[in-house]
Amino acid sequence: MFTKAKNIDTAFKETRRFFIMITSGIILLCAFLVYKSFKMVTGAQGKIYVLASGKAMEAFAEERRDNIPVEAKDHIGTFHQFFFTLSPDDKQILAGITKALYLGDASVKRAYDNLKESNYYTSIISGNVSQTVKTDSISVNTAEYPFYFRFYGKQEITRSSTVVTRSLITEGYLRNVSRSDNNSHGFLIERWQILENKDINVKNR
Known about the structure:
Distance between the termini: 119 Å
Keywords: Membrane, Transmembrane, Transmembrane helix
Radius of gyration: 32 Å
Transmembrane segments: 18-35
CATH topology of the largest domain: Nuclear Transport Factor 2, Chain: A
CATH architecture of the largest domain: Roll
Protein name: Bacteroides conjugative transposon TraK protein
C-alpha cells in the first residue's frame, strides 16, 4: 500500500517536472520569437528605397543626431555654391540665388539686396564675368544650439582679361526647420555675414 503511494507520488513529481520543463521551453521559445520579430520589424522600418535611374535601391535610415555634422556641412557648402556661383546670365543668377534663399533667413536676403543695389549682378552680366567658389573647410559647433559655423573657401572670378582669386570667410548659425524639396537637410542659416572677401591672386589671361 505504501509502496503504491510512493510510486504515485514519484510519478506525480516526475510529471510535474516534465511539464515545468516543457512550459519553460515554450516560454523561452516564445520570448525568442518575439525578440526576433521585433528586431525584424525594427530593421524593416529602418530601410528605405531610393528610386534612381528607374531602379529601386535599398538604403538605410539613420537617426538625425548621428548625422548632424555631415548634413550641416553639406547644407553650408551647398548654400555657398548657390549664392556665389554666378554666370553672365540673369536667369542663372536668379535661379541660384532663389535656391540659396530657401536655405537662409533674412540675413541672406539682406546680403543679396546689398549686392543687387550696388549693381554687382549687373556688372557680372555686362562684363561677361564668371564666378565660382571652392570650399576649403567648414567648421560646425554642434555642442551648442543653434549651431555656429564658419566657412573657409576661395572665389575664382574670371573676367575677359584676368582671373582673380579671392579668399572667402563667412560665419553664421544653423537652426532646425522642417525638411522640404527646397531644403532637404532641414537647416536654416541665420545671422549670416561675410567676414573676409579679398583678392589674394590676380592672373592675366
